[in-house]
Write a structure and sequence with these properties.
mainly alpha, flat
Length: 97
């Protein structure tokens, strides 16, 4: 059975807003947050991982590709890119100087 498409941060926030009264949903969202942090940590360390020789090499390649395609990784990279843009561009929360 294939997985449903992954949820973006905005999707998770919308669920929280719709179900803020439901303690079970909040508990599950905290678990999702924890698991997303594990994925981000794996992505941060992935540059130091060595590709294994033999048949496990293709499993490694599949894992690394899946890691790069995780929404939390893509969103993090987009956030970093936005922070690195030219300083004269106003970002969210910045008032004109």
């Amino acid at each position: 059975m294939p997985f449903k498409p992954p949820l973006l941060h905005a999707d998770l926030r919308a669920i929280r807003e719709r179900q803020s009264w439901n303690a079970d949903v909040i508990t599950l969202l905290w678990e999702v947050k924890r698991l997303r942090s594990v994925v981000l940590r794996a992505y941060q360390l992935s540059g130091d991982f060595k590709r294994p020789a033999g048949i496990t090499g293709s499993l490694y390649d599949d894992f690394m590709q899946a890691l790069r395609e995780e929404p939390c990784v893509i969103e993090r990279d987009q956030d970093v890119q936005e922070m690195m843009e030219t300083p004269d561009k106003l970002r969210k929360g910045m008032a004109p100087g």
